[in-house]
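Help needed: design a sequence for this.
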C-alpha cells in the first residue's frame, strides 16, 4: 500500500508540475508522510528520483534522507544526482549523503570537487556533509583550515565564499571579511577524531598578533576561535586564553564567565595554580 501511495503521489506531483501553477508544498508533505520501511516502497521513491521535474526529485530526496535506509538501493543514484544541473537537487542530495555517514564514502571525491564551484551557502551544506562522512573529514579539515588562514592573511575571496573559487576575480570584493569564522570553527569542533591536529593549527592562529588587514586587526578572531579551545583544550595557550577572557570581562557581559566555567568543567587539569585561580575568578564574576 505504501509503495502505491508513493507512486500515486509522484504521478500527481508530476502532473501538477506540468501545469501552469504548481504547488509543491502539499506534495512534499504527502511524500514525507510515507515511511520507507519496505524495499517496495524504497523502489517507488527510487523511481521518483528519475523524474524530469526537479521539485519531484527534491521531494523524494527529503523522504529518503528522513529514513536513511536501503543504502545499497539509493546510493548509486544519489552519486549520479550530485552531477544534476539544478543546484537545489544536488544540494539536497549532499544533505542526504551526510545522513548515510560512512556508507556514503564513495561520494567524497565528488563533494570535494564541488566546493571551489560553490557560493557560500552551498559550501556550508557540502562541508557539513563531508564532516558527517568519516572519509570526508580530512578534506573538510583542509578546506576549513584554508579558510581561516586566508582570512587571517586578509585574502579578499573570503568575503563571499568558504572555499576559494576555481576562477576568482576580486572585482566587487573591496574589503576584508571574517564573518564566517564562527561557522568554520563550529564545523571544526565536530571533527573530534582530528582534535590534536586541529588544536595545534588553531593554536598557531590564536597566537597571531593581527588578523586580516592592518585596518581590521584581529576583529575579535580570538573569541571566534575559542570554541576549539573549549572543545579540545588549550594545553599550550592557557595564558593567551585567560588574557582574552579578561579582555571580555573588562568589556562587560557574561561571555567570559560562561566560557571560564566550561573550561573548568571540561579541562580542569591543564592549568597552573596561578592560572587556575584566575580562571575561577573569571568563572565567578
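Sure. Designed sequence:
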Amino acid at each position: 500500500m505504501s509503495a502505491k501511495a508513493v507512486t500515486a503521489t509522484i504521478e500527481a506531483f508530476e502532473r501538477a508540475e506540468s501545469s501552469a501553477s504548481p504547488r509543491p508544498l502539499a506534495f512534499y508533505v504527502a511524500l514525507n508522510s510515507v515511511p520507507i520501511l519496505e524495499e517496495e516502497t524504497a523502489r517507488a521513491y527510487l523511481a521518483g528520483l528519475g523524474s524530469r521535474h526537479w521539485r519531484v526529485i527534491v521531494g523524494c530526496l527529503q523522504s529518503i534522507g528522513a529514513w536513511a535506509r536501503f543504502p545499497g538501493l539509493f546510493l548509486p543514484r544519489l552519486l549520479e544526482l550530485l552531477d544534476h544541473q539544478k543546484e537545489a537537487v544536488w544540494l539536497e542530495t549532499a544533505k542526504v549523503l551526510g545522513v548515510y555517514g560512512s556508507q556514503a564514502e564513495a561520494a567524497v571525491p565528488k563533494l570535494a570537487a564541488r566546493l571551489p564551484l560553490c557560493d557560500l551557502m552551498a559550501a556550508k551544506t557540502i562541508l557539513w556533509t563531508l564532516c558527517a562522512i568519516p572519509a570526508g573529514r580530512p578534506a573538510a579539515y583542509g578546506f576549513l583550515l584554508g579558510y581561516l588562514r586566508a582570512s587571517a592573511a586578509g585574502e579578499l575571496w573570503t568575503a563571499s565564499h568558504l572555499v576559494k573559487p576555481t576562477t576568482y576575480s576580486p572585482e566587487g570584493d573591496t574589503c576584508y571579511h571574517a564573518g564566517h569564522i564562527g561557522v568554520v570553527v563550529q564545523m571544526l569542533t565536530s571533527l573530534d577524531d582530528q582534535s590534536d591536529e586541529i588544536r595545534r593549527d588553531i593554536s598557531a592562529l590564536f597566537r597571531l598578533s593581527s588578523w586580516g588587514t592592518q585596518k581590521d586587526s584581529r576583529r575579535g578572531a580570538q573569541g571566534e576561535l575559542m570554541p576549539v579551545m573549549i572543545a579540545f583544550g588549550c594545553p599550550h595557550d592557557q595564558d593567551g586564553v585567560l588574557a582574552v577572557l579578561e579582555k571580555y570581562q573588562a568589556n562587560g557581559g557574561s561571555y567570559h564567565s560562561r566560557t571560564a566555567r566550561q573550561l573548568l568543567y571540561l579541562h580542569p587539569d591543564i592549568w597552573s595554580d596561578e592560572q587556575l585561580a584566575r580562571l575561577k575568578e573569571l568563572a565567578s564574576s
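The two ends are 62 Å apart (CA to CA).
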